[in-house]
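To: structure subgroup
Subject: Chain for Friday's discussion

All,

I'm putting the inputs and outputs inline so they're searchable in the archive.
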Amino acid sequence: MAACIHTVRRPQLNSSGLRNLRQEGRLPGVVFGKNADNEIVHISTKQFEKWLKQGASGFIELKMEGDRSLTVLLEDLQRNPVTGALVHVDFQLVQTGEIIRTKLGVKLVGNPIGTKSGGVVQIQDPFVEVEALPKDLPSTVELDISTMEIGDTRFVKDLVLPSGVTVISGDNELLVSVSKP
């Protein structure tokens, strides 16, 4: 099920206009897609942060004014480098018959055996880049790490993905390891 966020179209603003928008609790963003015009929008920062805390994966339904809605995926997120506050968000428009490229969150399942003997889990990359039709796209990919000992690593090639999902990330990209403290 897609998360629902109310969205308002916005005019092209200069930096002070965007700063005022952020002070009002709104997050500027853009929706783009293949064979579609870009739409500049703003959404509730509070609503978006709530979605981020819930795992930030899967489809988002942007409810536009006039009973129009767009199904999108989070493409990019910019934060202030000093404060960490949200600055801007990019959404990719999902078109049902088109293959889309996106990043999926890797959900680690289980507690590694190596942690019982003092090992530490180190997450190298919490995402994997994939391509699929929207109907085949899972919201996250699970990786079982319960059998990992100290010194073990898991790579992109160790993921089990549903049929119809193609991995774009390199097979030897490191996802997680268990190391000595």
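Points worth raising on Friday:
The chain has a mean pLDDT of 85.
The radius of gyration is 19 Å.

D.
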